[in-house]
Amino acid sequence: MNIDELRKKLIAAARLNPPQDRVPFAFSTRVMACIASAPALDEWALWARALWRSAGACLTLALFLGVFSLLTPPAADSVDLSQAFERTMLAAVDLENDYAR
């Protein structure tokens, strides 16, 4: 079938059945009832859902990094963290002692 011929037939059928100006009974009431029955947006639920998803992502990342740190061999020239921290914190005191002499 030719598309132009089909289009002409459809337009002719549409012209034979014009739209009505009459609105169905209680149409506005049904529309308003449908709008009123829609659940209200709960912002707390949205926040809770987002935070639980991010908590899962953080837990996954923490587990991955924990396993990675356990499986990674220590470096040969690794310095004890407590000793490095103590040297850093007491560096100012050592400088004062050097200048006092």
Quick take:
With 101 residues, this protein is an all-alpha fold. It has a domain of 39 residues. Helices cover 72% and strands 0% of the residues.
Main sheet characteristics: none
Total helical segments: 5
N-C termini distance: 108 Å
The overall average pLDDT, rounded, is 86
Identify low-pLDDT runs. Answer: none
Q: Percent of residues in beta strands?
A: under 5%
Structural class: mainly alpha
Question: What are the secondary-structure elements, in order, as H or E?
Answer: HHHHH
Instruction: Report Rg.
Output: 38 Å
Query: What level of helicity do the residues show?
Result: over 70%
Q: Give the overall shape.
A: elongated
Total number of beta strands? 0
Describe it.
This protein is an all-alpha fold and 101 residues long. The chain has a domain at 1-39. The protein contains five helices and no strands. The termini are far apart.
Name some characteristics of this structure.
mainly alpha, 5 helices, elongated
Helix and strand arrangement:
Blueprint: H1 3-16, H2 27-37, H3 43-71, H4 81-89, H5 91-100
